[in-house]
Amino acid sequence: MDKYIKMVEEYISIKTNYAIILSGSYGVGKTHFFEKHITHLVEQMPVSEGNAMYKPIHVSLFGLKDIEELQTQILYRQFESQDRNVSALMGVGRAVVKKVIGDDVCRDLEGVAGGLIDFSKIVLCIDDIDRKDEVFQYSTLFGYINMLVEKYGTKVLLIADENKLLEYPKYKEELKEKVVGVTIKYKPDIQEAFNSIIDERTEGYYRKYLYNEKKLILKVIEGRGSNLRHLVFFVEWFKRIYERFVVSMLEDNNQYELKDEVVLSVFYFSLVVCVEFKSGDLNAKNYDKIRDAAKEPKLIWAPAAKVNRTEEQKEANEYREKFMNAYYTSAEYLFFDSIFNNIIGEDALNIKKLKKEVSGYFPVGKEYSDLELLFKDLDYMDCLNLSLKEFRLKVTKMLGYIDRGELDLIDYFKAFKLITNFNNIYGFDLKKLVKRIKRGIKVGANNYSYESNLHVNFRYSSYAAFQPELQEIIRFCLEFNKELKEIEQREKSEMLFTILKRDVVNFKRLMEEDDDNFFSNNPFLNHFTAYQIYQVINKMNNEDVIVFRQFITGRFTYTEIRKSEREVLQELKHLINKPKRRKVKNIRNFVLDELVIELTNFIDTVD
C-alpha cells in the first residue's frame, strides 16, 4: 500500500503536464484507496506557489453523458464542504457551466463560476472512466483532460480498469500517449484489505468468527478476482444469519451431533452464493439450475446429453457445471432454499425454514432439545412428583432462557404459567416477573419471525390464576408480533422494489405466484417515494410499463391497500404527466397514458 501512496505523492510534488491512471480490476478497492489514503495526503501537500494546500476533488463518470455534467460535478465537489447552499448550487450548476464554457470544451476555464475554481490548485480524481454513458465520447473526455493538464497544470488521477479502456481503438493514441504519463497497476494486499473491511464493519464475536474463517473467505474471494465489493456484501448480509442462527447453534451443545458441520455448511453456502450473485454470474437465467443441482447431483459431472437446447439453456447448464466445479468438487452440495431466495431477493429471511432445512440434512442428537425437555418437566402433571428443590432448579433454568431471550414468542406466555404453578408457590413478585419476561422478549428480538396465527395460540381457562398478568404478557407479545410484521413487510417491500428495478419479468412472475398472498393482502408501494417509483418507470421499456400497469390493476381488492398507497400513487400520476415531452404523440406516451388511466381509477376508488 505504501508504494502506491509514494507514487501518487511523487506525481503531485513535481511539475507535470500529464495525468496518471490508477488501474485495477473492478471492485479491488481503487476508490477506497483514494478516499482513505490519498485524500488526506493531498490536503497536507502545498501547491508549489504560495502556502495554499491542494484540494482533492473526487468525481465519478458513472452514467455521465457529457463534459457539461462532468464540470457540474466538479463544481458540486468544490463547494460541498464549504458553508454554502450546495442544494441551490446543484439547481443552477449546469446552467452556470453551460453559460461559462458553452459547447466548446477547450475554451478557457478561468471564468468558470466566476473564477471560483483554480484548476492549478486541485487534485482531480476522475473515477469510473470505463463506466460512463455510451453517448459520452472518449475523444471528448480525453480532450478535456488534456486541456486541464496542459494549460492549467491540473493534477489529474484517473481511476479505471485499463484493460477495459484498451477496448477503445484510439486509447493508446488519444490518451495513453498524449495524456497519461504513469500507469499505477493497483493490486491491494488482500490480507490487509480483509482486515480493514472486517475491522471497519464488524465488532465483537461476529468479527472474531469471521477472522476464524478468514482463510476460507479469502480463498473464495480470490477465486473471483479479489473483488472486495463481494466481501463487503457477504459480511453485511451474513450478519443476520450469524445473529439469528449461528450464535444459537454454537451455544447449543445437544441439538445436533454434527454442530460444526452444520454451521460450516450454512456459512459456506451463504458465502459462495453471495459472491456469485454479486458478480452477476448467478442470475435469473440460471437460478433454477443451481436449485436443481441439489436434487440431481450426478448430472453435474455427467457428460452433457445430446439433446436440442436453446442457447439460454446451454448457458445455464454451463454455469451450473462451472459453479459446482468451482465450489463443490470436494464438499457435499447442501442447498438452503431459505438462504438462496433471500440473497437473490425473492423472499424475506426465514430462520425457521432454515432450521427445518438443516434438520433435513443433519441428524438430531436428542429427541428433544434441552428447552423442550424443560417445558415437558415443568408441565403440571409431570412436575407433581418433583421435590421443591428440583422444581426450583428447573424454574431457575427456565428464567435463564427467558433472560437470554431464547424462547419463541408463544413460549413466554407458557413459561409464565409454568413458573407460577401451584398458586405461585415461591412467591414471585408478579409485576417484576412480567417485566422480566418483557425484557427477555426484547433481548431475543433477532430470534423471532412474524407469526400470522399467534393470537390463536394464546389460550387459558376462565379459572386460570393471575389472568391480568397473562393478559399483559399476551398484549406485549401481540404488539411485538405486529412490529415484526411491519419489519417483515418493509424488508419484503424493499426486496420487491429491488426486483422491480432490476427485472420486471421476474417481478411479474412473483406477482402471479404470490404464494403467501403478499401482493394481494399488503400495501408496499407506500414504503417508497413517488419519485423513486417514477425513476424506475422512466428506465422501463414500454412492455415493462404495461406489466407494471397490470400490477396496479390487480390491487383494487383491498381497501387497506388503496388507502395506504393512494397518496404516493397520486403524486406518481402527477410526475408522469409533468414533463413537456408528454404532449408529443408517440407509442411511449400512449403506454404512459394507459398507466395514468389505471392510476386514476385506483385513486378514484378510494375517493
CATH topology of the largest domain: Rossmann fold
Structural class: mainly alpha
Please give the domain count.
Answer: 4
- Rounded to the nearest angstrom, the radius of gyration is 30 Å
Main sheet characteristics: 5 strands, parallel
Dominant shape: globular
Strand fraction equals under 5%
Instruction: Give the spatial strand order of the biggest sheet.
Output: 2-3-4-1-5
**What is the typical, i.e. mean, pLDDT?**
79
Taking the alpha carbons of the first and last residues, their distance comes to: 63 Å
CATH class of the largest domain: Alpha Beta
Structure annotation, total helices: 28
- Strand segment count: 5
In short:
60% of the residues lie in helices and 5% in strands. The chain has 607 residues and is mainly α. A five-stranded parallel sheet has the order 2-3-4-1-5, with helices on both faces.
Account of the 3D structure:
This protein is mostly helical and 607 residues long. The chain folds into 4 domains: 187 residues, Rossmann fold, CATH 3.40.50; 171 residues, no CATH class; 116 residues, no CATH class; 104 residues, no CATH class. The chain has 28 helices and 5 strands. A 5-stranded parallel beta sheet has the order 2-3-4-1-5, sandwiched between helices. The longest helix is centred in the C-terminal third of the chain and has 36 residues.
